[in-house]
């Protein structure tokens, strides 16, 4: 009798461990975070607290090992702005994803050059460099100190606008 109760007890423990260890569907949220959130579903307060303690330790270790990196929305937006114009994958919403896509940037010209074919190469105060992709001519080409706006067009195109002039098609090159 004693042996059969022990077997039932071990089976119960293994089911509980299996339930806790079952895979969590991939939602883009790291598994360590998902497991921490899953602790909320435990009804017994002592077990729930133990789960939270265990999972926060796991999360803390993952952060220390740089397996999980946490950034706030302000830093994510700054990163998106610095990458504006580059063709990069979404990386599963690495910088927050969602509807807060940057559609344009406003900056100041710090340098203007021409390539061997006469196309403009414009460097902005934020460090980005844009090369002209069309043969449009501006009435007044940009000069150092001019305010410009680079905006996203259709089909992945970008346009640089100086003042109220029509924009020229550009590509980010640096």
User: What is the CATH topology descriptor of the largest domain?
Assistant: OB fold (Dihydrolipoamide Acetyltransferase, E2P)
Are there runs of 5+ residues with pLDDT below 50, and where?
Answer: 1-23
Name of the CATH first level of the largest domain: Mainly Beta
Main beta-sheet strand count, sense and barrel state: 6 strands, antiparallel, barrel
Structural class: alpha+beta
H and E string: HHHHEEEEEE
Q: From the 3D coordinates, which CATH architecture of the largest domain would you assign?
A: Beta Barrel
Shape descriptor: rod-shaped
Oligomeric state of this protein? single chain
Tally of DSSP β-strands: 6
Radius of gyration: 27 Å
Q: Which bin fits the share of residues in helices? A: 25-40%
- Domain count: the total is 2
Keywords:
174 residues, alpha+beta, OB fold (Dihydrolipoamide Acetyltransferase, E2P), 2 domains, rod-shaped
Outline the structure in words.
The protein has 174 residues and is of the alpha+beta class. It folds into two domains: 2-64, no CATH class; 104-172, OB fold (Dihydrolipoamide Acetyltransferase, E2P), CATH 2.40.50. The protein has helices at 2-21, 31-38, 45-64, 73-83; strands at 104-114, 120-124, 129-132, 147-152, 158-162, 168-172. The chain has a six-stranded antiparallel beta barrel. Helix 2 (31-38) runs antiparallel to helix 3. The longest helix is centred in the first third of the chain and has 20 residues, at 2-21. It is rod-shaped and about 75 Å long. The termini are far apart. InterPro entries: UCP023238. Keywords: Signal. Residues 1-19 form the signal peptide.
